[in-house]
Amino acid sequence: MIRASQLALRRGAKLLFNNAQFSVFPGQRVGVVGRNGCGKSSLFGMIAGRLSADAGTLTWPSAWEIAELEQHVPSSSDSALEFVKQGDRLLARLDAERMHSDPHHAAEVESQFADADGYRWEARAGELLSGMGFSPAEQQAEVDSFSGGWRMRLKLTQTLMRRADLLLLDEPTNHLDLDAVLWFGDWLTRFPGTLLLISHDRDFLDQVCTHILFLDGETATLYTGNFTAFARQRMERMSQQLAEAQQMARQRAHLQKFVDRFRAKASKARQAQSRIKMLERLGEAPAPRSPDSVELPTPQPKKLPTPLLKLEDASVGYGDDVVLSQVRFSVEPGERIGILGRNGAGKSTLMKLIGGSLPAMSGTRYLAPDTVLRHFTQFEVEALPADRSPLLLLSDAYPETSMQGLRDWLGAFKYSGDMATSPIGPRSGGEKARFVLARMLYGAPNLILLDEPTNHLDIEMREALTDALSEFTGAVILVAHDRALLESCCEQYLVVADGVVAPFEGDLDQYAQWLRKRRSERARAAPVNRVSVAKVEPKPVNKRGQNELKKAEQAMEQASQQLQALQSRQTTLAAANSVDVAALSAVARELIAAQKALDTCEAHWMTLAEACES
Question: What's residue 540's pLDDT?
Fold first, then answer.
């Protein structure tokens, strides 16, 4: 297990946490949460060996294989599949042994590799890449041919390829679309090892985590349950602390009143002195620590024309390549529209068409004369001039406004004092995103386009943005992988898929079901796509082969049910208040064996199916 005992850590003069004590047992999936700068990434740095504790100890089994998501992807001419393959340390060891060891030792390693089902590495890598949104053709493309966001996906996929006992993931969903986030959450719930996950996505934490480790700027507290359970327990604890503080304050006031009244009287001097000692022992009433609430101002539009925007049979693309065709919808005041679809399907292209930065190749785009449109993009966050301060950047956009008015506005977005006047370059991604939001909202727009606005924003700022959007009387069009934001803000959805934009009648749970069905259909169609289109004369049905295939299907179903039962038991054991370490370790071992059995059944079924088809 991972055990922290009286753990303390400083970064410079800042104390991140002190006297922290917690234990994480094998198989638990722990979300690490807290405000930006509270020490979440530093805790990962200690486990990875980059940082040392200032006091106390942090221990974990030395035999554990640890996989950590790195935030940098080196340049590489390898294919995406080869790059992901490098994450499998067992495979890398086998390659090294074949080159440098004697044949007998290499044979021994190869036997271990076979026992670990290592020869399925290409199927494992392909499954991970497909889940992350890489098509078969893209899996063969060079790493350097991908954009920064897609390369981070490759790095995450490579990390998942590791046969890890402990997985450290710091904001892994920042570069994923909703489709990939939903698949990734399912994958993590099946992960048999121990997981530490830093995320500001409440729904993702709810889906994946069995425990929450909360860093509050002073210490670390481990809560049982997902994020919703943690939030409820924390509020209950804070209410109890507040009641205790109020009771202590009343007791102090009563004692102080007695002391003030009778201190000067000789007959009461002894009692007064006794009360003074009681006051000293009582100490000051501890004030409960509550999260800093953030309220973002919401400037209301001056005019709300109807419609704000309309697209009629619009096609859009780049050069001669059409990405989307026959796009047709209108935007009315007060509407909240969520754009769904995998990365690369054309969501950002659609947003550029709506925003006017990309002209329609055919059809029409109508923007009402009184429409004031603002578009938030991640490109703006990355393109901020590093040497300019937030105050000067906002003044550049609105030169007619007084500096004090701009300061007041930035202060509402937690940019006050030196933060407003110092260069923005050294600021974190979340702080830069906050500034871009502040600049976008200042002009009182009536149509807002938000393309992944929550990347790097902490939970409090995400909730503040959700509240601000709910009070906004204009229209909002939103692309996001944060389910909580989509569900809270959006009343209707559009799906971008296969070159068209269509309404989606349903909620995000139904969208997740639609995605699973779509992936399943594509998986079933994959063998057909490999068959030659040449006419083939029918052959007699091989009844023996069909019987064997049916038996293989039954075995595969039984193995799947056994795996699901073990996963359910692991979740129950990990969420218990009193954790049975031996039972949890045993289930973890059974899970590994069950996954191998299922993989073997699937491989056998595939062989028989291909034989029957041929």
Answer: 47
